[in-house]
Specification:
Layout: H1 2-12, H2 16-26, H3 32-36, H4 43-55, E1 59-61, E2 70-72, H5 75-119
Antiparallel strand pairs: 1-2
């Protein structure tokens, strides 16, 4: 289930307009009309983008009298962060092992050079 949601989230964020909408919602809730304002597309097109974000669990809509503000769901970012963090730690571990190996190779090289100089 989490993998499926993660796929939906990354797919939704693959579009630059949707990433911009998420960035704008990070500053606070906004209506579809508010969100559509800076784009050269219809309100319906922005509404479709928001629907994709909703389906991914990134955005929810509530009802406030006549307004239907969109709200950013921060919990989904925790799912993404955990996934990214896991692979970041693995990459760091590989780099640490590589650094250790290169350090050992450097020490061996320095030791071999000093041994040859002393023999001369």
């Amino acid at each position: 289930m989490a993998d499926d949601q993660l796929s939906l989230v990354f797919s939704a964020l693959a579009d630059p307009t949707r990433r911009d909408i998420v960035a704008r919602l990070a500053a606070g809730d906004a209506t579809v009309n508010d969100l559509a304002e800076p784009y050269d597309v219809t309100v319906q097109a922005v509404s479709k983008h928001i629907k994709v974000l909703e389906d991914a669990g990134l955005v929810s809509r509530s009802r406030d009298a006549q307004r239907r503000p969109c709200h950013l769901e921060a919990e989904v970012f925790d799912l993404m962060t955990k996934w990214i963090e896991r692979y970041r730690r693995e990459a760091e571990d590989r780099f640490r092992r590589l650094d250790a190996l290169l350090g050992q190779m450097g020490e061996q090289s320095a030791t071999g050079t000093q041994g040859k100089e002393a023999a001369s």
